[in-house]
Write a structure and sequence with these properties.
Blueprint lengths: L2 E4 L3 E7 L14 E7 L1 H11 L4 E7 L4 H9 L7 E3 L5 E7 L5 E6 L8 H8 L7 E4 L6 H10 L3 E4 L6 H4 L8 E5 H8 L4 H11 L4 E5 L5 E4 L4 E4 L12 H14 L4 H16 L11 H10 L3 H19 L6 H8 L3 H12 L3 H19 L4 H7 L5 H12 L3 H11 L1
Parallel strand pairs: 1-4, 1-8, 2-6, 4-5, 8-9, 9-10, 10-11
Antiparallel strand pairs: 2-3, 6-7, 11-12, 12-13
Helix pairs in contact: 1-8, 3-4, 6-7, 8-9, 9-10, 12-13
The chain binds alpha-D-ribofuranose.
């Protein structure tokens, strides 16, 4: 499958500041970087670094040599990119010490695209191909309509949200990838789950990926709802993270990956991007993404680790009174399911886990305090002393007193 990205190219002027400048404020910037950028260019580079065959179509100005070069250096086909009179698009980007950004755009050459040029580009692609586009060019609605007429798989990232998006027919799309702010603007819903529900109700065939920054993302893939957590990294600059996510997700889908797998890869790529400066320069290679994926626990693994920790903490914190029903209430599961879960995650039944923890605590008290054995038995939650003595002997092969003595002698 070939991927056509009809997308913007900008020269990004990035100012590093303590905080984003407010109205009536003047701040001195410590640093100015000039990077290649634009949502279109960033996404093409992400696609190429993820291993996809990508054709970038759009317009640059006469100052856009470095934009064309960075695309082609990354293996993007630029035969459909036109140079037009005037300046390329520009983005003025403030990046705060926390890595947040504020951007305004001068669209420049990105607005030079004509319907005739769009038709000529699309004539090179067929129903077997994918179109990716954002909303920093003119004629978004026209590109979507014409590509859908050719039967292409159309993936739209409606960013930035404006009047042009309101004119775009979402029922012509296969995929919609958007962030919380765009989802709210389009659906009028506040909560991410409600936004997702809105799209499912209005466009039942549409696959929707809703990115939520450091909270990960939600997705409806046409059959099921999925969520993907964000990978934990130290944030330097979030600019271009959404583009990295979109490019890697599109490339994975084009390669035939399952949506859950594509989301995980995209989330890992975006995490690497936010840990670096700039938009295009921060986009990782597929090798770097694979390394992060291999060194991170899987979703299920992470969830299992979390549950195991909660079960063990519950037993430790409720050593005298612990009960399976109460633990089930804390975890939000039925007692039967919680019993199965405890066995699966700890390798013991709930009652064996509790006995083991009580014996461990009793052994600690025998060694570290002078408290009489009867008192310790009571402190660790046993009402039946002979039951405790039997369990203790099974575990330590000694009676509590022998244990205290032998360890005391050894000191
Ligand atoms: O998504 C990040 C991009 O948005 C920047 O590279 C900038 O050019 C703006 O278009």
């Amino acid at each position: 499958m070939k991927i056509l990205n009809f997308g913007s190219c900008n020269i990004d002027y990035v100012y590093s500041l303590d905080h984003i400048v407010q109205a009536k404020e003047t701040e001195m910037t410590a640093r100015l970087d000039v990077f290649p950028g634009g949502k279109g260019l960033n996404q093409s580079i992400a696609l190429a670094r993820a291993g996809a065959a990508v054709y970038h179509a759009g317009c640059i100005g006469q100052d856009g040599g470095m934009l064309a070069r960075v695309l082609s250096d990354n293996g993007v086909d630029i035969s459909l990119l036109q140079t037009v009179p005037g300046q390329s698009g520009q983005a003025i980007i403030q990046v705060s010490a926390e890595g947040e950004n504020a951007i305004f755009l001068y669209p420049g050459a990105n607005m030079a695209l004509s319907e005739a040029q769009i038709d000529a580009v699309l004539s090179r692609f067929s129903a077997a191909d994918m179109l990716l586009l954002q909303n920093e060019l003119c004629h978004t609605d026209y590109i979507v309509r014409r590509a859908a007429e050719r039967g292409m798989c159309v993936m739209l990232n409606p960013s930035p949200y404006n009047e042009q998006i309101k004119k775009t027919d979402f029922s012509a799309l296969s995929y919609l990838i958007l962030n919380e702010v765009e989802a709210k603007d389009i659906s009028g819903c506040e909560l991410p789950q409600d936004c997702l529900r809105y799209f499912r109700q209005h466009y039942p065939a549409l696959k929707v990926i809703l990115t939520l920054g450091d909270k990960g993302c939600l997705c409806f893939d046409g059959e099921r709802e999925l969520c993907q957590r964000a990978f934990c990294v130290k944030v330097k600059d979030t600019t271009g993270a959404g583009d990295t996510f979109t490019g890697f997700f599109a490339a994975e889908i084009a390669h035939g990956a399952d949506s859950a797998e594509a989301l995980r890869t995209a989330a890992a790529a975006a995490a690497i991007a936010v840990s670096r400066n700039g938009a295009a320069p921060s986009i990782p290679t597929m090798e770097e993404v694979r390394c992060l994926l291999q060194s991170s626990p899987t979703e299920q693994g992470a969830k299992a680790d979390d549950l195991r920790t909660r079960i063990e903490a519950y037993v430790r914190d409720h050593i005298r009174t612990a009960a399976l029903e109460e633990l089930a209430g804390e975890l939000g599961y039925s007692a039967v399911y919680t019993g199965t879960l405890v066995k699966k995650l700890t390798g013991r039944t709930f009652s064996a886990l509790l006995q083991e923890e009580r014996c461990r605590l009793a052994a600690h008290k025998l060694l570290c305090t002078d408290a009489p054995v009867e008192e310790i038995i009571e402190q660790v939650g046993y009402k039946n002393a002979s039951f405790f003595r039997r369990i203790f002997r099974q575990t330590y092969r000694q009676t509590p007193l022998q244990f205290r003595q032998s360890k005391g002698d050894a000191k």
